[in-house]
Design goal:
By secondary structure, the chain is an alpha/beta fold. It is 56% helix and 9% strand. Helix 14 links the parallel strand 5 and strand 6.
Length: 459
């Protein structure tokens, strides 16, 4: 049964008299988390764990404890294990998380609850945090600066040979488990399947060593090894489809799970085979939108932003709106690598939706400039539009961009890079350690929320 909170513990209150009070920042954050609307958002998702979570079953970890422990986790950049340990060992954090002298939920329990919270819920949660900041006059939404960054998924730099070897490894493992289930059930299976995991790994390593050389002989040798690796992968996929068909006919839960695993990975492996054939054997330039760079984080986009230090990034582009007071009022995760110019209109619309009025000043980088974008901002009621023009600028344009308010606005806009840097360094938005696209969205949501709460705690 879903529990709202633990009852207040008088013994714990007596203990608090012997330890320092919460830090001023945590006290302010604690006040914001008292908001009933924030609590209801999280409670609604946690109540969907089972059909009758709200009415029956043993008592759950209280909603209040889950919410506050997840805030602590991202506020200080802890892992789930570290969050459990730190809260258990700290009386002040026990007080903040409302655990008191009860058992602190372990990391696996916290993970299960965290995975129930939907990305849309976190977006609404952040909107409510911004509303509370407006009510307490931390911000009025009079100034807007918008910019994007890339958050990487937790994958190694991809190569076709490594992806083929991964395909063989993952699918072979599942085939062997499936065959064991079929044998246990007394079903006859075709003999002759060989585990090609080690061979695929050796071939992938050989390809990497051979193709380091740009000589024609090395390139030809590399293609021959690629053909062998592709043949091995295709043979493994043929066995996988046969095993999957047999597993589908079984009623056991384990057989169904293994069939689902094969149904998930075999199409991805087939896509890897296709792209490797096109790129290596046929010499074709495969568009980024048609490539897969990871079997496990298949949603990952290939992003080029023209940066010398990172010519190619693997993850997702995240677009942020920041208002005065240092708060990220809106964020969105983009699909693919769209042009920055397309993000101006959604950013202004999102600001209007949050604050119900246009900003007095709105700014962006050169990539957002276009005459329609400037006109759109003026039409929506923005008084000062700060979008420096790319390329050639006429004398009139130079005079416009050298006006005192434009120069001052450009200087203020530069602060958005600092906000992005803090989110990446302090709140782990540099690389997403969660799995899957939904996990990626949750990771971004909690990072933004933690960043905003940290700002409010210092304000």
């Amino acid at each position: 049964m879903l529990v709202e909170q633990y009852p207040t513990d008088k013994r714990f209150e007596e203990l608090l008299g012997y330890i320092p009070e919460l830090s001023p920042a945590l006290r302010k954050i604690d006040e914001y988390l008292e908001d009933e609307n924030l609590y209801k958002l999280i409670r609604a998702d946690l109540a969907k764990r089972y059909p009758k979570t709200k009415e029956t079953g043993r008592n759950s970890t209280p909603v209040e404890v889950v919410l506050r422990m997840l805030v602590v986790k991202r506020l200080y950049g802890y892992s789930y294990e570290e969050t459990e340990r730190v809260v258990r060992d700290s009386l002040s954090l026990r007080a903040f998380c409302r655990v008191y002298l009860q058992d602190v939920p372990d990391d696996t329990t916290l993970i299960r609850w965290a995975n129930l919270i939907q990305p849309k819920t976190l977006e609404a949660f952040n909107q409510r945090v911004v509303q509370l900041a407006v009510e307490r006059k931390v911000t009025k939404g009079r100034k807007l600066r918008t910019d994007g960054t890339v958050v990487e998924t937790n994958i190694r730099p991809p190569s076709d040979s490594r992806l083929l070897a991964d395909s063989v490894r993952v699918v072979t493992r599942t085939i062997l488990r499936g065959q064991a289930v079929l044998r246990t059930a007394g079903q006859k299976i075709q003999s002759g399947f060989e585990d090609g995991t080690q061979r695929a790994k050796q071939l992938a390593r050989q390809i990497g060593e051979t193709l380091r050389s740009k000589k024609e002989a090395a390139q030809n040798a590399g293609q021959q090894v690629y053909q062998e690796l592709l043949a091995l992968t295709q043979q493994t996929m043929a066995w996988a489809e046969q095993t999957q068909n047999q597993l589908k006919k079984r009623a056991e839960q384990k057989a169904k799970r293994l069939a689902e695993t094969l149904a998930h990975f075999v199409p991805l492996a087939q896509q890897v085979i296709q792209q490797a054939t096109r790129r290596i054997l046929q010499g074709e330039q495969v568009p980024a939108s048609e490539k897969i760079v990871s079997l496990f984080e298949e949603h990952t986009d290939i992003i080029r932003r023209g940066k010398e230090s990172r010519p190619v990034e693997y993850g997702h582009k995240v677009w942020l709106n920041e208002v005065e007071g240092g708060l990220v009022s809106h964020y969105r995760i983009l699909e693919g690598n769209p042009s920055d110019e397309q993000q101006w209109k959604p950013s202004l619309k999102a600001h209007l939706k949050t604050f119900h009025q246009p900003p007095h000043q709105a700014s962006g980088d050169r990539g957002l400039f276009s005459e329609p974008n400037e006109q759109l901002a003026h039409d929506l009621g923005v008084k000062r539009v700060i979008l420096p023009k790319r390329g050639y600028r006429s004398k009139a344009r130079l005079k416009h961009e050298h006006k005192a308010w434009f120069v001052k606005g450009r200087r203020w806009h530069a602060g958005v890079e600092g906000r992005i840097s803090v989110l990446k360094r302090a709140h782990t938005l540099g690389r997403c350690l969660a799995h899957g696209l939904a996990g990626f969205h949750r990771w971004i949501g909690w990072g933004i929320i933690a960043g905003n709460l940290a700002v409010l705690g210092r304000t």
